[in-house]
């Protein structure tokens, strides 16, 4: 329980929305949280049994509690985000990525310039962005410059200076990239119309520009100015091509922010798409490091506020995968079908790809972090009491009882440890009895490890269903190891995981990393066992009458032995019986051989 002073502080907390702050004995801020009911939320930290070790450590260190009451839960969200960013408490989530992003600036001046910048200066200029990549900015500016000739010089084009003939046109004018406003060759009204069209293109609205160009093209064609008409047509083609590439959903979906989240034990990945007139004008994924056991809802709410503030979003509607609280005036929508669901799925896919990229990078740059994350995920998915740093997997191999063998493969920290692999010849079992074979090899393996005082694995995986698992458990019981080592069986057909004394199997997500590692273990055990089995069998079987037949290989022999059990029965089989198993061509070769 909490100390008396903290208990007293909790008892006097209001039952209202607000933000709470935890401090240690030195007055250092440990954690900032939000709550609809401050008293109820803070009290839960000191009365609940926490699974997360970090949370337990946090609670031990709390010596002082402060709070700020606000009007609504949304206000609490905003305040929490600002306090976390300002003080960066040790136990709060960490929002990675604090770099400066590029903007497109329409300069506040006569005959405005349009250019990229990373500096946001409050001088009355218009800034669009920020964009998550300079490549996107350059692509957009290249499109704009191809459609509308703009000046690039930084002259002060005041009316009196132009009339006074202070400036002369430069090379850009002669190249056709600028229409010469410095000598009054380009009127201010036409220039400003082009700037308005550029604003719309940056926002993702191509409709006005396309309409204007089509109108110009028709007029040039009517006046028989076909070269000018062709030039305008080329601009229309460029704009329509760009629009078709950028438009991903219904153009009626306008001015919407889309957010999705993918998370694991240690990190959350929130993707943000900004949609305007059906076009994605921005995509960004934020990586959030968990400090405690934060839920996806908590992470997403924090990320939505952070991303909307960072990218200065004014959208009044957001799409999210589940309901969250949002600032006043913003409509939250959870799409289920149609174009809106399509764009949310696209956001989720972006988050998944980003996560995969981070994993690949982590493997190279920080392999320990990657391993720790995998181990923590496996512990959670498989409901284990400790991380499975050492896993062993068993598989039997035989063909209808011939040359029965077994294999044990070992993974350490999620990777094969081939020097620890072991092969077993089945010694005590007569005939094809997988259950008895499994019981024998598990007993032999762990009896030896105990006798040699070798470290035991944290997890045993048995390739097979309930029967093989029960056989392995008998051996653990004999060795008094039951309960000391976690053990599961994996059935091939539906990839079901069976636990001791639990009739209901566990089904893992088919894309989960935990299942992939278990499948890798099972496949490696199968490969290792089959290789050993073939090596052993080849010493006896490769010299049989069957394998001396031209055109009959090892796989064919295995198929025949599975079906007919012995060389004698194969010799006595009819052509049709053989053809049903190995096809007419190979059946003919065997019949011809034995007839000779």
UniProtKB/TrEMBL annotation:
GIY-YIG domain sequence ranges: 15-93
Residues forming coiled coils: none
CDD domains named in the record: GIY-YIG_UvrC_Cho
PROSITE patterns hit by this protein: GIY_YIG, UVR, UVRC
Signal peptide segment: none
Localization in the cell: Cytoplasm
Domain annotation UVR: ranges: 207-242
Membrane spanning residue stretches: none
Record-annotated UvrC family homology region profile domain positions: 287-476
Pfam families linked: GIY-YIG (PF01541), HHH_5 (PF14520), UvrC_RNaseH (PF22920), UvrC_RNaseH_dom (PF08459)
Lineage: superkingdom: Bacteria
Keywords of the record: Cytoplasm, DNA damage, DNA excision, DNA repair, Excision nuclease, SOS response
Cited function: The UvrABC repair system catalyzes the recognition and processing of DNA lesions. UvrC both incises the 5' and 3' sides of the lesion. The N-terminal half is responsible for the 3' incision and the C-terminal half is responsible for the 5' incision.
HAMAP family with a match to the protein in the record: UvrC (MF_00203)
Subunit annotation: Interacts with UvrB in an incision complex.
Family classification: Belongs to the UvrC family.
Annotated NCBIfam families: uvrC
Entry protein name: UvrABC system protein C
Name of the gene: uvrC
């Amino acid at each position: 329980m909490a100390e008396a002073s903290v208990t007293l502080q909790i008892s006097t907390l209001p039952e209202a929305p607000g933000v709470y702050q935890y401090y240690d004995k030195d007055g250092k801020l440990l954690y900032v949280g939000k709550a609809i009911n401050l008293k109820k939320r803070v009290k839960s930290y000191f009365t609940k049994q926490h699974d997360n070790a970090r949370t337990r450590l946090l609670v031990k260190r709390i010596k002082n509690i402060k709070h700020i009451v606000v009007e609504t839960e949304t206000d609490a969200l905003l305040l929490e985000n600002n306090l976390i960013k300002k003080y960066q408490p040790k136990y709060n989530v960490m929002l990675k990525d604090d770099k400066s992003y590029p903007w497109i600036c329409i300069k506040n001046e006569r005959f405005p310039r349009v250019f990229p910048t990373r500096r946001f200066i409050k001088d009355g200029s218009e800034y669009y962005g920020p964009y998550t990549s300079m490549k996107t900015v350059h692509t957009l500016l290249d499109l704009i410059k191809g459609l509308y000739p703009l000046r690039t010089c930084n002259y002060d084009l005041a009316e009196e200076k132009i009339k006074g003939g202070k400036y002369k046109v430069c090379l850009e004018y002669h190249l056709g990239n600028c229409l010469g406003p410095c000598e009054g060759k380009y009127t201010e009204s036409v220039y400003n119309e082009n700037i308005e069209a550029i604003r719309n293109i940056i926002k993702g609205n191509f409709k006005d520009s396309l309409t204007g160009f089509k109108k110009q093209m028709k007029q040039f064609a009517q006046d028989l100015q076909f070269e000018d008409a062709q030039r305008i047509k080329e601009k229309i083609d460029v704009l329509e091509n760009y629009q078709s590439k950028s438009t991903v959903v219904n153009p009626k979906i306008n001015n919407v922010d889309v957010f999705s989240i993918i998370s694991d034990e240690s990190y959350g990945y929130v993707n943000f798409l900004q949609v305007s007139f059906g076009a994605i004008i921005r995509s960004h994924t934020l990586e959030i490091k968990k400090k405690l056991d934060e839920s996806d809802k908590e992470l997403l709410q924090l990320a939505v506020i952070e991303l909307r503030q960072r990218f200065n979003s004014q959208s009044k509607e957001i799409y999210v995968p589940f309901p969250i609280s949002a600032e006043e005036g913003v409509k939250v929508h959870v799409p289920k079908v149609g174009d809106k669901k399509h764009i949310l799925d696209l956001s989720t896919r972006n988050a998944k790809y980003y996560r995969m990229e981070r994993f690949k990078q982590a493997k190279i740059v920080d392999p320990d972090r990657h391993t720790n994350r995998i181990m923590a995920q496996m512990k959670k998915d498989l409901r284990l009491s400790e991380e499975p740093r050492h896993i062993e997997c068993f598989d039997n191999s035989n063909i209808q009882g011939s040359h029965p063998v077994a294999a044990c493969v070992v993974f350490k920290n999620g990777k094969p440890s081939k020097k620890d692999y072991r092969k077993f010849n089945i010694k005590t079992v007569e005939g094809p009895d997988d259950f008895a074979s499994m019981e024998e090899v598990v007993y032999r393996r762990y009896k030896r490890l105990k006798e040699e005082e070798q470290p035991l694995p944290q997890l045993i995986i048995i390739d097979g269903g309930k029967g093989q698992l029960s056989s392995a458990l008998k051996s653990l019981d004999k060795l008094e190891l039951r309960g000391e080592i976690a053990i599961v069986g994996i059935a091939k057909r539906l990839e079901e995981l069976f636990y001791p004394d639990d009739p209901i199997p566990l089904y893992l997500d088919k894309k989960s990393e935990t299942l992939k590692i278990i499948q890798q273990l099972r496949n490696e055990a199968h490969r290792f066992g089959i290789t050993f089995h073939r090596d052993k069998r080849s010493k006896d079987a490769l010299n049989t009458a069957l394998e001396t037949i031209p055109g009959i290989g090892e796989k064919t022999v295995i198929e025949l032995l599975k079906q007919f059990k012995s060389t004698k029965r194969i010799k006595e089989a009819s052509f049709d019986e053989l053809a049903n198993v190995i096809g007419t061509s190979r059946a003919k070769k065997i019949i011809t051989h034995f007839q000779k």
